[in-house]
Amino acid sequence: MQPIAQLEGQFTDVDGRYAIVVGRFNHHVVDSLVEGVVDSLMRHGVSEENIELIHVPGAWELPLAVKRVLQVSRPDAVVALGAVIRGGTPHFEYVAGNCNSSLSSLQLEFATPIANGVLTVNSIDQAVERAGTKAGNKGTEAAMAAMEMVSLFKRLGGEA
């Protein structure tokens, strides 16, 4: 019996163009996510010239900006970053749900990886934990996912 063919991305073949689209709202948390993404991309050999950083007001605006970036810049991958922190009203559910759903749809529409680094948390403490303290840096994790997908797409070949 022959072994099953397996394909996966490698972190040694991640060269490409990356767009980081960042919601400024809760910037005290999101700034650390951005640092994690940029550091991770550069540590894996992505040149600074191949990283574009785009700021938008908040998570609600992320999908529209990501769509425009995909239409105009056509990067190999997008990393979407933001922080939606639950409050005392249902606003959290609308913003978080719409943002995540729209990013997922855009990824399929444009056949381009969109790494979702949008924190959806119950408290500021949880956000801080996920932005580089106890729970690691979710920006770094999003960058790793984006790079792995870029590498995998190179291995899969073909047109998007």
UniProtKB/TrEMBL annotation:
Catalytic activity, EC: 2.5.1.78
GO cellular component annotations of the record: cytosol; riboflavin synthase complex
Record: residues binding 5-amino-6-(D-ribitylamino)uracil: F25, A59, W60, E61, A83, V84, I85, N116
Residues given in the record as (2S)-2-hydroxy-3-oxobutyl phosphate binding sites: G88, T89, R130
BP GO annotations: riboflavin biosynthetic process
Transmembrane segments: none
Catalytic activity annotation: (2S)-2-hydroxy-3-oxobutyl phosphate + 5-amino-6-(D-ribitylamino)uracil = 6,7-dimethyl-8-(1-D-ribityl)lumazine + phosphate + 2 H2O + H(+)
One term of GO molecular function: 6,7-dimethyl-8-ribityllumazine synthase activity
Keyword annotations from UniProtKB, A to Z: Riboflavin biosynthesis, Transferase
Species assigned in the record: Salinicola corii
Residues at the catalytic site: H91
Reported function: Catalyzes the formation of 6,7-dimethyl-8-ribityllumazine by condensation of 5-amino-6-(D-ribitylamino)uracil with 3,4-dihydroxy-2-butanone 4-phosphate. This is the penultimate step in the biosynthesis of riboflavin.
PANTHER family referenced in this protein's UniProt entry, alphabetically: 6,7-DIMETHYL-8-RIBITYLLUMAZINE SYNTHASE, 6,7-DIMETHYL-8-RIBITYLLUMAZINE SYNTHASE DMRL SYNTHASE LUMAZINE SYNTHASE
Pathway: Cofactor biosynthesis; riboflavin biosynthesis; riboflavin from 2-hydroxy-3-oxobutyl phosphate and 5-amino-6-(D-ribitylamino)uracil: step 1/2
Self-association state and partner proteins as the record states: Forms an icosahedral capsid composed of 60 subunits, arranged as a dodecamer of pentamers.
InterPro entries linked to this entry: LS (IPR034964), LS/RS (IPR002180), LS/RS_sf (IPR036467)
Protein name: 6,7-dimethyl-8-ribityllumazine synthase
Assigned protein family: Belongs to the DMRL synthase family.
